[in-house]
Write a structure and sequence with these properties.
By secondary structure, the protein is α/β, with parallel strands linked by helices. 23% of the residues lie in helices and 30% in strands. It has five helices and 13 strands. The chain has an eight-stranded mixed beta sheet with strand order 2-1-3-4-13-12-11-8, sandwiched between helices. The chain has a three-stranded mixed beta sheet with strand order 5-6-10, with no helix packed on it. Strands 7-9 form a two-stranded antiparallel sheet. β11 and β12 (172-179) form a beta hairpin. The longest helix is centred in the C-terminal third of the chain and has 13 residues, at 193-205.
Length: 207
């Protein structure tokens, strides 16, 4: 049985994530503070809101050091969702605090010079899975999966080493990033109905 913990640092929609996992048959625990004596296979970090508030709460509740240490254990998975993905990186121009710095890169606000885009990027959009996640596309039966997004900032790094999924708005941006056992989804799988359910299942059962 896969043991899953969902971090409750006051910045995320834990209930929706927990309910979707239960529908898929996965039990999970919502944890306000880390417990090193408890052995979980997967740690989920959901998040909404501002970057600095997210990091402040992780720092105050003891999750920062726990997640950094956990990221070095290749037998354990960490998944950041929406703001949770952003917090996995080095920082964001939205705030001043240092991120977890587990995945290289940082976040910059969408440029609004494109007349056809609005900021935040909100609503359904497609994800083209690459690299480690390419096999996930097979479960979507010849259609490009789409997910629900709500965000104003996008990932940037000097190359595409950690990019495993891309979305267009209208230019391409990284909607999935990954380094070893640590992954980030910029979208909300828990709000993405059957697409999100299949993605969670694929993620949890992948090596």
């Amino acid at each position: 049985m896969i043991r899953i913990q969902i971090i409750d640092s006051g910045i995320g929609n834990m209930g929706s994530v927990a309910n979707m996992l239960k529908k898929l048959g996965y039990s999970n625990e919502i944890k306000k503070t880390p417990d090193k004596s408890d052995d979980f296979d997967v740690t989920l970090l959901p998040g909404v809101g501002s970057f600095d508030n997210g990091m402040k709460r992780l720092n105050e509740s003891g999750w920062t050091n726990y997640l950094k240490e956990l990221s070095t254990n290749q037998n354990k998975k960490i998944l950041g969702i929406c703001l949770g993905m952003q917090l996995l990186t080095e920082g964001s121009e939205e705030g001043n605090l240092e991120g977890l710095s587990i995945i290289p890169g940082e976040f910059y606000k969408f440029e609004s010079h494109h007349q056809e885009i609005k900021v935040p990027h909100m609503g359904w959009n497609y994800v083209n899975f690459l690299k480690d996640f390419k096999s996930f596309s097979k479960s979507y039966e010849n259609e490009i999966p789409r997910f629900y997004f709500v965000h104003s900032y996008k990932y940037f790094y000097k190359n595409n080493d950690f990019v495993c999924g891309i979305t267009k708005y209208p230019d391409e941006f990284a909607s999935v990033i990954k380094k070893n056992n640590v992954t980030g989804f910029q979208f909300h799988p828990e709000k993405s109905h059957s697409y999100g359910m299949r993605l969670f299942k694929n993620y949890l059962e992948s090596d």
